Amino acid sequence: MTDVDAFYRKIRLRLVESGEWERMKTTIGPKLNESGWLDDIKNKGVERAGEMHQLSFQTLFEALSTAGHVGLPLPARRELQAMIREYLEKQFE
């Protein structure tokens, strides 16, 4: 694991432990739903799972993770990045 990966894991853990991650999800979730992103990911998951001979959570997660990142609406991505940036600035002042 690289230093960047370790740093990323620590930040993600802090976000979860502080409740900030849940707040971000609550803020962004409705916007993703309105944009159709959630339905798109759900449909892709159902389609991909139906194509698999042996269902594998890890394989399904990896496929949906990639599709989710690529298909994330730009306004939602920017808002989420701004919230994370603001959180990090407060943590490292």
From TrEMBL:
Gene3D superfamilies: 1.10.246.140. GO terms for cellular component: nuclear pore; SAGA complex. One of its GO terms (molecular function) is transcription coactivator activity. InterPro entries: TF_ENY2, TF_EnY2_sf. GO terms for biological process: mRNA export from nucleus. This is Transcription and mRNA export factor SUS1.
